[in-house]
């Protein structure tokens, strides 16, 4: 078998499907310049999140794990409703500040709101009048089970919860690997199995971010 360059593969597909975008390029560069880790979703994944949000007509989106706001910009752009909102939760003041700059550049100041603090606490403190249509979970993996519990409370019936980075080069299925993040994903899977109020599936992916995958869940 030959070695495949998965970045090249992503680039090839993106060259047909994803237009050059000054705002997103600025968001990436600004994050790099400010020393943020290079761990945002890929362009293809960002567009996927955008398309999911469009498909379900998302008006209210919750994100757990903002970083520089890259995925938030993709999702925020899908919100058509004037009174729609994307709330994104971030523990790092610096990351939140960079994200806000990127939202301003994107013209999404009125739509994308960052709450700084530990995401679990922030979620517990959320009591919106209207539930969320979509929740994207992409922060510390060890807390995914707690994030799931709160996401379930906050998402509407029929709403979508997406968990990122759940395959981890197959480490999640390798029971000899027991770091807190891997164990967090296993605990999430166990919770999903027991939960009669959600239906979920994991889709493994490969691309410029390597071998990983996401779990897509629907709240019944
Ligand atoms: N969703 C972002 C994107 O694709 O552009 C990437 C998010 S990055 C993978 C994870 C983020 O979660 C980091 O910015 C990190 O500071 C934040 N984070 C880690 N632990 C957290 C916690 N307990 N509460 C809130 N945010 C946390």
How does this model look, in words?
This protein has 220 residues and is an alpha/beta fold. The protein has one domain: Rossmann fold. It is built from 8 helices and 7 strands. A 7-stranded mixed β-sheet has the order 3-2-1-4-5-7-6, with helices on both faces. Helix 2 runs antiparallel to helix 5 and helix 3 runs parallel beside helix 4. The longest helix is centred in the C-terminal third of the chain and has 15 residues. The termini are far apart. The mean pLDDT is 98. It binds S-adenosylmethionine (SAM). The site of S-adenosylmethionine has 19 residues, from helix 4 and strand 2.
Task: Based on the model shown, name its key terms.
220 residues, alpha/beta, Rossmann fold, seven-stranded mixed β-sheet, 8 helices, 41% helix, 24% strand, globular, binds S-adenosylmethionine
- What is the name of the CATH topology? Rossmann fold
Q: What is the beta-strand fraction?
A: 15-25%
Number of strands: 7
Task: Flag low-confidence runs.
Answer: none
Radius of gyration: 17 Å
Q: What characteristic shape results from the CA principal axes? A: globular
Order of helices and strands: HHHEHEHEHEHEHEE
CATH superfamily, by name, is Vaccinia Virus protein VP39
Bound molecules: S-adenosylmethionine
CATH 2nd-level architecture: 3-Layer(aba) Sandwich
What's the overall average pLDDT, rounded? 98
- End-to-end CA span: 43 Å
